[in-house]
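Feature request, filed as a ticket because there's no other form

It would be nice if the structure record came with a short human-readable summary line next to the tokens. Right now we just get the raw output. Example of a typical job, pasted below so the devs can see what we mean:
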Amino acid sequence: MQATLFSHRPVSYANKPALRPIIILMNFEKIALFITIVCLSMMIGCNKVVDVQEPDTETVPDATITAIKTDYPDAAKFVFKTLLKDKLWKAKFISNASNFETQVSPTAIVAQVYRESSDVTLYKNLTDKLKVRGGSISGVQLADKATDNGARMKYLFNGKPFLLNYYILNDWHIIKLTAKAPTESFVVDTGDLPAAIQSFCQQKSISLANSTINLITDADGKKAYYIYPAAQLYPLIFSETGELLWIARNSDGSNVVNKTNSEVGTAELLAKVTEGYEDFTTPTNVAFESQFDGLKSVRYVLQKKSGVEGTRTFINELREVFVNATTGEIIYDQYSSYVFR
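Raw output as currently delivered:
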């Protein structure tokens, strides 16, 4: 049974994706990258917002509340938090006795709306079948009005926090676990990038036109910019201050070549990445390394297949890891699983 495995569909930002999905095929010609978010907000007054960029407070435009009430007429008890001053807020509200969360601009809802849920049964039953069994689930949020049963939640596994995204694709239950449990993620414009990043892209002839750019904060409070240039499969990843952390291209213009995991990076890096996943032994040949102005970037892909392929017992599990081989730091780490419904 041949199946095409996709990453979680991007959260809708008024037709502007939060993260461009990267596709993984069963033949491993492409691999997914998605980062979605569990947000933890401050509780404040009805239509006031704590401005996390300035010490004072600001008032959310009336049109912002009107936009929410257009889709949720009985919405009340609003709580807002500034993401981008005067441009973007995280919004929490209550409607029909349920708690909701989304992101809003001065005039519209610009992200997927999520509704809180206390039911963890489905997700617990699925994770119990997987390598990541035994973790604890909390903070379940269901994608409201979604057609793929999308949900996101916190998952604590082996003492480490993950963001768990769930959705259905055709005959598959799909679970994605992103390490360091991103707590904020939102789209920014080119003009919101640090000057160092804009200058780098200009000097290196990397066009930012039609790029999707996300500012992501992890569970440790560390921020990074993920830039997806138009028609490119992998992001450029920069630190909050503009330092290039990972890039899937060579500065001499040569192609990045897919190889086996053992052919890229170093034995020490591979041992670091595979620790705890020693049973992910299905061969893959989509790892690669790149050299860009002294920065060595590596991508590893681990895989484990169980059950009988082509039957409903089949389970496919993967782990994709981006490593800054110059510093040895793991920049991005996502586990994915595909289980028949």
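Something like this underneath would help us a lot:
Residues 188-242 form one domain.
Residues 62-71 form the longest helix (10 residues).
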